[in-house]
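[step 3/7] fold_predict: job queued, chain A
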Amino acid sequence: MKRNFAHQGGGNQVNETCLLIRGGTVWTGDRRNPRAEAVLLEGERVLAVGSAADLENLEGARGARILELAGETVIPGMTDAHLHLLYYSKQRAGVSLFETRSLEEAIGVLREAAAKTQPGDWIHGVRYNDAYWIENRAPTRHDLDAAGIDRPILLTRVCTHVQVANSAALAASGIPEERWGDGILLETEVAPVLKAMETWRAETGKTLGMIEKACRDFASYGVTEIQTCSASGYGLADDLAPFQRLRLEGRLPVRVVLYEDRLPQWNFMSGLGDDWIRYGGFKLFLDGSLGGRTAALTSPYADDPSTCGLLNHEEEALLATVREAHKRGLQMLIHAIGDRALDQAIRAVKAAYAEGPCPCGLPHRINHVMICRPDQLEALKTLGAVLDVQPAFVPSEIAMATARLGEERIPWSYPWKSFVDSGLVVTGSSDCPVEPPSPWRGIWAAVCRVGDDGHPEGGWQPHQKLNLEEALELWTVNGAIAVGEGGRRGRISPGYLADLAVLDRDIFRIHPMELKDVKARLTLAGGRVTHGDLPGWPAS
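[step 4/7] structure written:
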């Protein structure tokens, strides 16, 4: 971002540690003082917020550098409260099938990709959505084998809970041939295949660069923290070591909080680490996805009465695991999409709190919560759980959700406004790579609740729309609160860490449909530039 970067008056005195940003609208995230004209940074923290005239007259502003805006908006640095960063970095390097509208078209894209590879290279087709294909069915191993592509092939559905491997990929994974079946792999069945593909990737030595590029994608939208989830049972293994390496090399552009689906070997609590890299807690998958019909419902799917989805855990074993995690001071992040899974999550959190407060001092979190009956909402209010939602699922899933759930369940599905109005802490996230990394697509979806074509007119379940400031809080204030950092991050306020984003437009004056296209001109984390151009200013 190159624009009128000068020094505040004060004779020859120059203060290279202070930056005064003015000339736009500062949305602070503080309900007591939501708007300001300017913000003054000193080092890694916010020094002052207020009118441009008042800040210019502060002693700390003498000799400060000035970033003169042209009416753009400044907001707190954003938090993506639930994603799979490592897996996104891999999908980012994969072959996108999202735009394909038939199996035949997808096969053609795979053939083109294979022609650019070397013998033995894997082909990873990502984000296919068979609900949009004219065949209206999942591909199979036999379809892939018949394509005549002499490469190991793995296809990952857009929901990431259904994957398909060809015979070459299954053979490379070591799965016995008698278990290959149609090659369709649900939930954790894909782990051996993903491990084999990751072994091939590791041998290329490109993993670290892939992760850095993925992190910078988030920074380009104004994100300063990611709360990423490792899911080794699903082949989505992640760890803190790559982020540590990037930080040591001065290449880490976002703060990282990691949740892992395994209890730690050593006895430590959530929050271990520092401002940049820390251990978040314990991730539990209770069910699958709505798109794959593996989300656990209390009554059968409207478009397939033969199934109610799948619960991944037996009740008693789950409760024992939850109690153990709670006693050890681990914040739990519980994946529950269907209402039957949410019932189980509520029972699990109740069982945990029956043991007393969590030693780490953090509330437990329930992720997705896409289907929530009124009685369940009352139970959640009593528990005080943090709810991690993905509003971008609405435009992606309007038609699918209506078909899967039927009209009876729709009124209490994707109920983000009900959650916010209940007083619960609700965070916003992408579930990337299920949805793109942009928080602005999620904010747009929360505000408009329409598809990319603007339909249905007035919004799908319009009573569940959020206003813009409510939506912003999901990605700023509440993301920090969820990890116990609400007094240090998530707002632009004196003493808070200097995590903020200068956006490419005034978001309070544009048409709401434009929100999905917003990007950051400049992103700062701890006062350091992580995206954009600010010559002479520290950068990561």
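[step 5/7] annotate
The mean pLDDT is 92.
The two ends are 15 Å apart (CA to CA).
exit 0
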